[in-house]
Write a structure and sequence with these properties.
about 375 residues, alpha/beta, 8-stranded parallel beta sheet
Length: about 375
């Protein structure tokens, strides 16, 4: 189809590389970087993001599900890919065929993969997932004496890593993170005493890798920081560059008299003669309905407030106080314009969520345009 709706996302691969360099500067060369690219690289497009990170020096990759790992292989990623979520019945063959590394957190899955690997004449590397306090998935410490002997007998499997996940790392002063690190150290010693030799040990996510040292770990798992999101709930920001910008254009201008109700529910009623710009973007695109009446966009470098309810495909903004606005003018929903900036953290604060969800909710119908200074 020729032509397209003027609503799109820009992905800045140079900014992505910059953020990876900040991680490398923090961790040093002695630790490996497992770049988390699950959920389509947090909505940025894993098929383009992961190869760029691989070329820039990422050592391993993390995905949530096997399907995401298969996509990375198709995009040319050759480095190890760790499936952080479950491997479900029937996926064993794809896992082995595409050389994906599972996280194992239950014995039934381990048995299935062991059988498939032995049948294929392979030995499948895995990372053992332990629950040190997240309370989600993973073997609890008290389960390990019964689990480790069973894993040792599975000749189609080889423990390549030990993994856990931090619950409160974005609160640097919270002592529970150190408690989780202590439990992880004890489990690592227990695993080694049982005869396993995991070459990778990792628990640090984006927040932890910038706030604390866990010497026993030789892998870090940056996620949100790669995309320019700030990982800490409070404190100074890090030298990160936003990777995603979300833009559209003014499709129609309309002047309405005072007293006019606007959009569903008439939650906005013009208090004066008002100029409204109709923007062809809505909650079906990932522009949250929770931004109704409080979200702001940039038009000609100035902020304009969302007027009324965000619709599925349209959003209206009040541009009365911005001189010279015309049909076709660029509208920045997320990103920079003439020195002003709207951040994912700002969106998140207004919608009661986190920057992770802001990025992930931008829908597939919004095309991604990649900017790459190397090409």
């Amino acid at each position: 189809m020729q032509g397209h709706r003027p609503t799109y996302v820009e992905i800045d691969l140079d900014a992505l590389r910059h953020n990876l360099r900040q991680v490398r500067r923090q961790t040093g060369e002695e630790r490996q970087i497992l770049a988390v690219v699950k959920a389509d690289a947090y909505g940025h497009g894993a098929a383009r993001v992961a190869p760029a990170l691989q070329d820039a020096g990422a050592d391993l990759f993390g995905v949530a599900i096997a399907e995401e790992g298969v996509e990375l292989r198709g995009a040319g990623v050759t480095r190890p890919v760790l499936v952080l979520g479950g491997v479900y019945p029937g996926q064993e063959g794809e896992l082995l065929r595409h050389r994906l590394t599972p996280c194992l957190f239950d014995l039934e899955t381990a048995k299935r993969i062991d059988r498939a690997a032995r049948s294929a004449g392979q030995v499948c590397p895995y990372h053992l997932k332990v629950d040190t306090g997240m309370g989600r998935i993973g073997f609890r410490p008290e389960e390990l004496p019964g689990v480790l002997p069973g894993l040792a007998g599975m000749k189609g499997l080889r423990m390549e890593g030990l993994i856990s996940h931090l619950a409160l790392a974005d609160e640097p002063q919270n002592p529970f993170t150190e408690e989780q690190a202590r439990r992880f150290r004890e489990i690592l010693a227990e695993v080694r005493a049982a005869g396993f030799a995991p070459q990778h040990a990792h628990i640090s996510n984006s927040a932890a890798l910038f706030t604390r040292e866990i010497p026993e770990c030789n892998v870090v798992r940056p996620g949100i920081v790669l995309y320019g999101g700030q990982p800490l709930a409070s404190g100074p920001g890090l030298d990160l560059q936003p990777v995603m910008s979300f833009r559209s254009r003014v499709a129609q201008l309309k002047e309405v008299p005072a007293g006019t109700g606007i959009s569903y529910g008439h939650r906005f009623v013009a208090e004066r003669p008002t100029v409204l710009a109709a923007i062809p973007v809505g909650y079906a695109d990932g522009y949250s309905r929770h931004l109704s009446g409080c979200g702001e966009v940039l038009v000609r470098g100035r902020r304009a407030t969302v007027a009324g309810t965000v619709c599925m495909d349209w959003t209206l903004v009040d541009v009365t106080d911005i001189p010279g606005v015309g049909v076709g003018d660029e509208v920045t929903l997320l990103g920079r314009d003439n020195g002003s900036r709207i951040t994912a953290e700002e969106w998140a604060g207004k919608t009661g969520t986190i920057s992770y969800e802001v990025f992930c909710q931008v829908s597939k119908r919004v095309p991604r345009i990649y900017r790459d200074g190397r090409r």
